[in-house]
Give the backbone structure.
Amino acid sequence: MLNTPWETGSDLYRKLVVSALVTTALGILIAVVGAMTDRSGLVYTGIPVIVVGMVCHIAGLVVRSRDTRRRLRDRR
């Protein structure tokens, strides 16, 4: 068994990672479509969506570190 964060992570961590990836990709897609069609409103809409994806990613990192601390504390 590989010791990857995906395999050792909790369900909450996995959900946060997937939602971060999907949200960030959606924000990038919105921004690119807005840039290609010269619609600045779409570009400015895509930026907060990307930020929400980044916040989900940071929340996943926090959950992962919390789980690791709990796992190490339980070993002692």
Q: What stands out?
A: The longest helix spans residues 40-75. The radius of gyration is 17 Å. The helical segments are 5-8, 11-36, 40-75.
